[in-house]
Amino acid sequence: MNTKEKYDLADMVVAHALKSGADQVAVTISDNRSTEIEIRDQKIDTLKESNRSNLSVDIYTENKYSSHSTNRMKKEELLKFVEEAIAATKYLAPDEFRTLPEPELYYSGGGPELNTMDPKIDSLDARTKIDMANQSLNEAYGEDERIISVSSYYSDSISNMVKVASNGFRGDSGSTGISLAVTVSIKSDTGRPSDYWYENSRFIDRLKKTDIGREALVRALNKMNPKKIASGKYPVVIENRVAMNIAGPIYNSLSGANIHQKQSFLIGKEGKPVTSSILTVYDDPFIPSGSGSRLFDGEGLASVRRSVIEKGILKNYYIDTYYGKKLGMKPTSGSSSNVVFGKGKRSPQEMISSISKGVYITGFIGGNCNLSTGDFSYGIEGFYIENGRIVHPVNEMNITGNMNTLWFSLSELGNDPRENDSIMIPSLMFKDVVLSGI
Length: 438
Known about the structure:
The protein folds into 2 domains: about 5-220, 2-Layer Sandwich (PmbA/TldD fold); about 225-245 and about 345-435, no CATH class. With about 450 residues, the chain is an alpha+beta fold. About 20% of the residues lie in helices and about 35% in strands. The strands form 3 sheets. A 6-stranded antiparallel β-sheet has the order 3-2-1-4-5-6. Strands 7-12-13-14-17 form a 5-stranded mixed β-barrel. Strands 10-9-8-11-16 form a 5-stranded mixed β-sheet, with no helix packed on it. The chain contains 10 helices and 17 strands. The longest helix has 17 residues, at about 5-20. Helix 1 (about 5-20) packs across helix 2 (about 75-90).
């Protein structure tokens, strides 16, 4: 189904829903084609190709709301589907805050060219995809006698969507993505350490296709024969690849849903310091070919570049229409686009060289954070640092504390954000972090 056909179908569904008793309605029609390949020890373990189409309809009637979806696109079936959806909605409890967005907040056309589609991905055949996965696997397979297993993963996706709302919104978008990953497990005297590496991009020509397996193998070998260290307060550097594990609670505490449900330690903090003054974070939907780039969000709200945290000061929450009405706050967007952290001047290795005794954290294992209070405890793995050098791997340690104090101890940001991720976060250095043995 091409874009015009999607619009025609969405217009028909909207018109029929209004005729059948809906006060407002929004229709989204999407399709996705994807491939997943897993090769384990040079044998294909998984090969999945899927082609999915979906129509979802949001019904608003008599201050009641429901959302329904179907993959059956025949006109007669859709008309009956809509009628049944409206009938079912009328049995629900009313909620005065359930409405479509105000029309003036919608995307209304134009904007920068985001370049989020790569037509070359659609032309790749299965053999080429398998060969790419095999190439990554063979960089590690058989390269060390201590290897237990090597697995490589290839995935791609091609997505297109059209959205129409009864109060004026019309928009469409498309995106592609492709990734390669390798995991390596090895045997040692103290266990079976494993690690991984991955690369991703919107475009096959920009995807880094080499050294993925080699990097995964080196990382696994470096984790052999770990030791615990004495409990205490240490400076730590958290690798960019896993830094979102520690930043995630801040991100989640910014959502309207968590604020309304009192599951946020950042309630009432807008305009106030929430981190060290060295941290600036902004949401930028207009980065060309960015993983999260978009002209409008899932509701149709026009994309806007916004500060999230500016020199440590909280500037904006993520508020959708529903929770905006419940909280008495202006909608910004209920979801992020490209979250861009400011970056520093030094590499992780240079930051490590400045530490007399500390830990370089390269992985998180279990644990949790209480979003209401900010209290957290996570298992970690990584490397002990002494006199600016990595001495030995570390495991069976916990990092504990409270997010409200941890982020004020942020002392430096690295110069190494992963540019192809939708959350572009560099390595982070904190001072006086509590680490304890399990």
